[in-house]
Automatic annotation (TrEMBL):
It catalyses: Hydrolysis of terminal, non-reducing alpha-D-galactose residues in alpha-D-galactosides, including galactose oligosaccharides, galactomannans and galactolipids; Hydrolysis of terminal, non-reducing branched (1->3)-alpha-D-galactosidic residues, producing free D-galactose. The keyword Transcription regulation does not apply. Residues 149-244, 353-417 form the GLAA-B beta-barrel domain. This is Uncharacterized protein. The lineage of its organism: Bacteria, Pseudomonadati, Pseudomonadota, Gammaproteobacteria, Alteromonadales.
Length: 611
């Protein structure tokens, strides 16, 4: 594959018009410096006023590269542009934005290795309704993070409390026996989760469970300066010396949001922290991440990077490329690539239907675009009808009334779902990327295009690669049609969740046997497993498992399982050959094909999981 998958247009000669007196000294090769607008590195001055002038110039002069001389730049939310944004799988609202790249063309932001430090609640960059945008060569961080970490000093199960010593660099206060997150210009009194991390390994502790606190907040007292006692119930009790993550509820401040754009490149960017996702793309046509790292900054003392997913892509089309990236320490998945179902809420006639966007963090995302090819699925997510959107009417952020070209079938019913097939990626390439030491999983993949996952490293507390769909709650669409998983190293995954390295599941829980996914080829990989779990597949047509090496390890304590390393259920055309198992008991049954129906339930995220 060529490095430049997308074609970037080059505009004409630099116009002479200017938006500031600095224009007379701007470079003739369309490279301008933020210094030309009065901002110097390492000054600790607010970069926003100078940046506004520079971006205004870039918008008027397509093809411009804005460079930042190497150093530190600080951004405050006070003077930043504000607008209301719907950001999928994050919380919507009015957001200050440092780099509001809205309506730009062929613009490059080159940090030249600089460190961008943000203060308070704000989004570093939103690329929206633009084309040919490149962001490169800078890091993103906050002086005061949006979460809190503490070293566990005492655990008392009888009296149901944990004492933690808050690490340097984290800010909080305690009022009326309640923990409150404190940042620059904001406070949040709601703890979402308390989760244990292994301090030495800097990863989620072995079999540590989430301790969600939404309904009842822990009774918090400061027993001495910097040491807090959190009195609450724990699903799994942590160990003294480990780190306790105190995670807040909101997903307000992703690092980079890419919306309704074409041809977006993110190159050599280090996202050390954000108060939501690292990179979130929605309705983007072509997005390429090259050497993007989501990882805590060195010497920061932090274990956590972003407070949810490292990357996430919703109804993006064209190409999605993740090349030579690193996703570590984020408090959810490394990447999630999917479409979004619209739920049938009301049927008006043979051509008109009102749809509902079900999850509150998907409101306002316009998946109902005229001219789009769509399909309809029933309550078991079996596709039964294809059509084309002719006209749409947005009733509000939750409901759309849609008119279709062809007559709708009489079998269409409320609670069936529609998927927009015109806004799905044609190609997904994930290569040379490391998924490690986060919470949750590596990659969640549910897209119709050609998906290649090769030459990657996975060391995740949950499933390394989950191919699924969510027909309830999140309403993430599927299925997959062509997936190649090859030459990857799966290094002792599932150390905090009993499951397989690769899990292929249908959408809504049902008793039907018909195939949901198809054509998943898994070959020439190395699996290092302590739990003897490699692959679980259900309702899939065409699974190939060939020439893989499976090495039994003692990296973590093994939990007994009745399932075979390769557990195939309600599936057809399973191909198995040339695989090498090392270190397994000779009497161990290695492959089970349609012999046992895998018991599953609908998890909290609306996706089927093992019961």
């Amino acid at each position: 594959m060529k490095r430049r998958t997308f074609i970037k247009s080059i505009s004409g000669a630099l116009a002479t018009a200017s938006v500031s007196p600095a224009a007379s000294v701007l470079a003739a090769d369309k490279r301008i410096s933020i210094a030309d607008f009065g901002l110097k590195p390492n000054s600790r001055d607010d970069a926003v006023p100078a940046l506004k002038k520079a971006l205004a110039y870039c918008k008027q002069h397509p093809g411009t590269t804005l460079v930042f001389p190497y150093g530190r730049y600080d951004f405050w939310n006070t003077l930043a542009d504000r607008d209301f944004y719907y950001i999928s799988n994050n919380d919507d609202g009015i957001k200050p934005v440092a780099f509001p790249l809205v309506g730009f063309s062929n613009t490059t932001i080159d940090g030249q290795g600089s460190r961008f430090v943000f203060h308070g609640g704000m989004v570093p960059a939103i690329v929206r309704q633009s084309k040919g945008i490149t962001l490169k060569n800078f890091s993103i961080d906050w002086d005061v993070p949006f979460h809190c970490e503490g070293i566990i000093e005492a655990v008392n199960q009888d009296e149901s409390y944990v004492d933690i010593r808050i690490k340097d660099g984290f800010s909080y206060k305690v009022e009326n026996n309640r923990f409150i997150f404190v940042g620059e210009g904001f406070e949040n009194p709601v703890i979402k989760n308390l989760l244990e991390f292994d301090t030495e390994l800097a990863e989620q502790a072995y079999m540590a469970r989430d301790n969600f606190q939404r309904e009842i907040q822990p009774v918090t007292t400061e027993i001495r300066p910097g040491v807090l006692r959190l009195q609450t119930k724990f699903a799994s009790w942590p160990k003294v010396g480990n780190t306790l993550l105190v995670m807040q509820e909101r997903r307000d401040w992703p690092a980079i949001a890419v919306q309704e754009t074409s041809n977006t490149w993110l190159e050599q960017i280090n996202i050390h922290h954000s108060g939501a996702m690292g990179v979130i793309g929605q309705l983007a046509d072509g997005i390429h991440l090259d050497r993007v790292q989501v990882v805590p900054a060195r010497h920061s003392g932090r274990i956590v990077s972003t407070t949810v997913d490292a990357t996430h892509f919703v109804n993006c089309r064209g190409h999605i490329v993740l090349k030579d990236c690193l996703f570590q320490g984020q408090i959810d998945d490394g990447t999630n690539i999917h479409g979004m179902y619209g739920r049938v809420a009301e049927i008006h006639d043979k051509h008109r239907v009102t749809f509902e966007l079900v999850h509150y963090q998907q409101l306002g995302i316009d998946i109902f675009k005229p001219g789009s090819q769509v399909n309809f699925s029933d309550k078991a997510l079996r596709i039964f009808h294809h059509n084309q959107i002719v006209e749409t009417q947005r009733n509000d952020a939750k409901y759309w009334t849609v008119t279709f070209k062809e007559a709708l079938p009489e079998s269409l019913a409320v609670d069936d779902v529609m998927d927009n097939m015109s806004w799905q990626p044609e190609q997904v390439l994930i290569t040379g990327t490391r998924f490690a030491k986060n919470r949750a999983r590596g990659g969640l993949i549910s897209a119709k295009g050609n998906i290649i996952i090769e030459n990657n490293y996975f060391h995740t507390p949950g499933i390394a690669i989950k191919i699924g769909s969510g027909g309830v709650k999140w309403y993430e669409s599927g299925p997959v049609q062509s997936v190649q998983i090859s030459n990857n190293l799966f290094d002792n995954c599932n150390y905090a969740k009993a499951s397989s390295a690769i899990d292929i599941v249908p959408g809504r829980k049902s008793d039907v046997d018909s195939a949901f996914h198809q054509n998943v080829r898994i070959h020439d990989n190395e699996f290092r497993v302590f739990n003897e779990r490699v692959l679980t597949a259900s309702r899939t047509h065409g699974v190939l498992f060939v020439n893989n090496k499976i090495q039994k390890t003692e990296a973590y304590p093994m939990e007994a399982t009745k399932l075979a390393p390769l557990q195939i259920d309600r599936s057809t055309q399973f191909v198995y050959s040339g695989n090498e198992f090392v270190g397994f008991d000779r009497n161990k049954k290695l492959v089970s094909v349609n012999e046992v129906r895998i018991q599953r339930k609908t998890g909290k995220n609306g996706v089927e999981v093992e019961a």
